Here is the input.
Amino acid sequence: MARNRYDMDEVLEDSFDVRQLKRLAGYVAPYKGKMAGIIILMLSASALTMMIPIFFQRIMDYYIPEKDMGKITLVSLLTLAVATYSAIAMRFKTKTMTIVGQNIIHAIRTDIFDHLQELPFSYYDDRPHGKIQVRVVNYVNSLSDLLSNGIVNTVTDLCNLFFIIIFMLICDTRLTLICLCGLPLLALVIIFIKKKQRRAWQVQSNKQSNLNAYIAESINGIRVTQSFVRENENNQIFNDLSRNYRKAWMRAVKFNFTMGPSVDVISAVTTSFIYVLGIRWILAPDATLTVGVLIAFTAYIGRFWAPINTLAGFYNSLLTAISYLERIFETIDEPVLVKDADGATDMPPIRGKVEFKDVAFSYEEGHRILENINFTVKPGETYAFVGPTGAGKSTIVNLISRFYNVDSGQLLIDGTDISTVTIHSLRSQMGVMMQDSFIFSGTIMDNIRYGNREATDEEVIAAAKTVCAHDFISQMENGYYTEVNERGSRLSAGQRQLISFARALLANPKILILDEATSSIDTETEILLQKGLNELLKGRTSFIIAHRLSTIKNADCIMYVDKGGILERGTHEELLAQRGAYYGLYMSQYDFLTQDAMTQNIAGKEISLRFETA
Here is the structure.
């Protein structure tokens, strides 16, 4: 899939669906009362400021020739009052609309994040996480100016434009028609750049997404990068992506900057004609135009093109926002493949019987990972899965937690098809420890309590003791309240696994799933941990995936998974007696450990001999 790579652009849509603007309007709707009030306030301020050119006309044509200082002073005070009112209205509008805009942004971002919480693992398997993050942060932020100022300014400026034309017609109809001649030219410019501008911003959003995806990937893999001395190669890749982003951005803003200068040029040309003709009419023998009218009209010209310039800016912002809206709503519309069925009920308290009946599963259509999986686990039993990497062991336990939906067949817990119950009621009764021992930023106490938010400190400590994590935690500077970084960079791989294990145990699950739970734990710690596990597994239905066969020898049943099915099943002794795939796997590990032990023993003797000789 193309979007699974940082260097592949996402698919561009040829045409924009206007329904997405309607969806955006749905986020704006709760604030329509405040926005209407602001619009009325700004229109009142605008109506008053439109009187200022009339004041100047009266001063030029009447009050100065009559030397009426009283009226000149009065008009000056009125002008000051109007300007003060306009400034206060602008300040109130800016503050209110900033709050409204940010509230809308918050609502959109919350909807995206909430939806991301519900999307299945398969969604994240198919996409670089950086491309997901850029939608939640950058794309939503790009709508801020549009929502904070664009909508109100547009409505206000449209009304202002209507009022300005009326005042201009009152001043002089001929000059007004000359001014309006520039609008058809502006319309041609808009039509010319519209499609190209939207396409350019789509490309820019793709390049931004690619760059963000690579940055996120590089940060997550920085240890591997430095270990293999890949800094120069990574810098080259980053520079290439950054250049592509810069090139796309420059092309996109080129169209944006076309609109403003176009308005300015058209305004300058029409204004020049107005000055030439206006002065001619003033100097004509019949003097069909006064100096005061020309001054007032030229003031209105600036006011006429100012809202048009603002509308052009809004148009630019809208086309830019459209390219981001497509990605934002695409994420929100991403189907939740694993969700509660219509009429789903809560899972009753789990006793622990688990049944797979002819279960089949595939991550991609036509590529079956599992086929005809059948087995039944009684309450309290421990089942272990072994087999080569990629055989489907983790997939089986992920299906139990319903992280994925089965393609066909049934998965029953206590006789209830798990597809008919709510996901929350199902997973809340399970404890899962995955291969990726993720540690959140915060204290160790908070990380363990993540499995049960209601747990007391004593219960957290008890869980840590069960998995042999208490000793190393107690030795840290602040014990359980030691702050750890995201992904637990301060902790060793084994320590992270022990904390994750304590987190799973604290949930007191009826079904416990351990996916490579001891893969990063040293042998000495594993022996201690095994004692705690033996007590923990009593009375619980447990599923264990392990490559270390020593950790699953006491399981009630061991299944050898390969080629999409269960090739062998039985106890440790039964499988050894069969001398099949499990026997070969066990003996290969046994031989390796024996040779390793012999090597260590010989090395120890050599060291001892050298010491004695010395």
The longest strand covers residues 354-364.
